[in-house]
Give the backbone structure.
Amino acid sequence: MTFLAPGFLIAAGIVAAGVGVLHLIITREPSVFRLPTARFAPEIETRERSRAIEPRHLLLMLLRMAVVLVIGAALARPVLAPARTSLIRIVLLDRSRAVADPREAADSARRQVRPGDVLIGFDSAAAELSEPADSLAAWARNPARGRLSTALIAGLRAASRHRARADSIELVLISAMAREQVDAATDSIRRLWPASITVVPVTARTDTASTSVTLRGGPDDPLRYALPPASAAPGAIPVVVVRGTPAALDSQVTVAGGVLVVWPEPPVVPEGWQIGRPDTVGAVAAGPAVVVAPFVRTATHPESDAAPVIARWVDGTPAATERPAGQGCSRAVTVPVPRIGDLVLEPRFRRLVAELTAPCGGRVDWTPIDTTRLARLADAARPARALAAGLAPVEQVPAPWSRWLLVLALLLLAGEWLGRRTVSP
Amino acid sequence: MRELTSGALLDALRGVHWPARRVVGGVVQGGHRSRRVGASPEFLEYRPYQQGDDPSRIDWKLFGRTERVAVRLTHDDASLRTMLLVDASASMAFPLETRAKWIAAASIALGLAAVAHGDGDPVGAAIVSDSVELIPARTRRGTVAGIQQRLVGIVPGGSTPLTPVLAAFRGVRRIAILSDFLGDAEGLLPVAGELVAGGAEMIAVHVVDPAELNPDAGGHIVVDPEDARVRRPLGETELPIYRERFAVFRAGLAAAWRGAGALYHEVSSAEPPDRVVRRITGSARLP
């Protein structure tokens, strides 16, 4: 057991010692008793010193000392922790789509992780792993985009959680270091870690991830004019855009890792969505693409749908979602394509369509981050390890024993009150 | 105060008489022998013999005729004006939780009042707490209830001396003092002696509590409730000295009162009051 705030325990020990000393040396006047025949008692000095060394007073003294010590122990926040080591390593392992070979990343993690260290896997979310091998099977084709901000936040929290187990904590980042994994918050989050980060790069994917888009719609469908040109490059990811209800054949595209985009024309809505009262909304955004235009919205996103949102209306409500399907994914898009006007020919709309027909997880950019950014991420000028004592405040670390110690203190106080009543005359 | 209001005490004393210890002068009809002897007292009536009556007053001729035991009353039978001086000072409120001394004194006073009233004697009381409540001696119905009511309503306190009240009892033929005699005991004796010399019958009832005879020697400081300056330690070492001194005090008190011509009774607050009343009234027999 260790104490997160041992100062309280030390203070309680001093106070308890004082209680014991007072019990032994304090003088008190004997109790007064009304007796009409008091005059017949001999006239001698009425003050005498009495020491509380009778067994009943000793018990009271011990009870009082115990109350003080237990309260001090509760405030000192005891935690049952394994013996402290000198160093704990927190390894952040990239499981995103940018990693070319998941086995390479897993092997790098095995080399870094020692017994007692913490392994956290991340892509768009982060979770603590028990062993690198158990996540290998799930990496065969992980379409999720990795985010370094998510990884760093998970690492900071893990460091705070485990600060009681070691004197120092080291952070190791095993990642493809792709440009798409960095966002505007990454630098700010990085600065929260007081030490350097050991960066272990793994091979990033190099395939261009081009798409080959096929439209299942009418000959006069205006969307045809906004779609990106089909790529003939080998390995292009097939994307099928269905302008109505998809057929079984259409869903086959996701089996091999392609994308099925269900983009019906109003008043039809994708499966699971609800037909709402038409209203006009002024803009829609998907990734970096934004289109400002008076869209007439007819579909309502169900609240029970937890699929990731890839496009939003200007009021924040979802306009398109994506969910995994087979080895690829399926998207539901409710952005109406205007039949009147030349919006579909404008570059901003075409960029929106490019985002909505991009490969699963959005448009990819597996270009490695530049060396300047990499150096900023590693920040070798900082100490290699962070001192555990300097990490997150003690209040954020759970100490369940404190609650029970306070209950024990209350019971001891009740015992002290009972003991005081039997002792007092 | 349940002992004073339950009625059990008065029931237990039904039929008890309190005969005069001395020959009484006076012309009011009563149950005591008149000093007018040798004259031909006019016959008034027969009264059934009651316990305590002088056997020489039994009319044997009547017994021979009717087998009824009755005493002959004449116009010369005298009453005995009786006053009860009840000490209700702070020292009587002991122990603090039960006030057993006060309840004992009040119960005995009530019992004596009921017995005297039952004998046809005018009876009254003076209850001395931090003030004096005087109930004049009367024979009317309700006298005993009035005394009872006053006793129930008293909370012992204060330290008013008894001597001036006793001194005002000149002319009273029978006086009973119920007290712990921890106040102005020295002042009472001369006045009592004067009253006895003047023909009054004096009874001193000394009320003592068992906790005063054997106090708890737990290393306390004991304080006189009527004089806070008196503070003494009372532990195992002091207890034998205390007991000896208190015993000497009680013995001296008994000797002094008897020497003054009074009847002296030491009663414990734990003793049943009806038994005490019987003891007091039974000892008051004509020589």
User: Anything to note?
Assistant: Chain B has ten helices and ten strands. The interface with chain A takes residues 90-92, 94, 96, 101, 180, 182, 211-212, 215-216, 218-226, 230-234, 238, 241-242, 245-246, 249 of chain B (CB under 8 Å). Confidence is low (pLDDT under 50) at residues 24-29, 35-40 of chain B. Residues 178 and 263 of chain B are 12 Å apart (CA to CA).
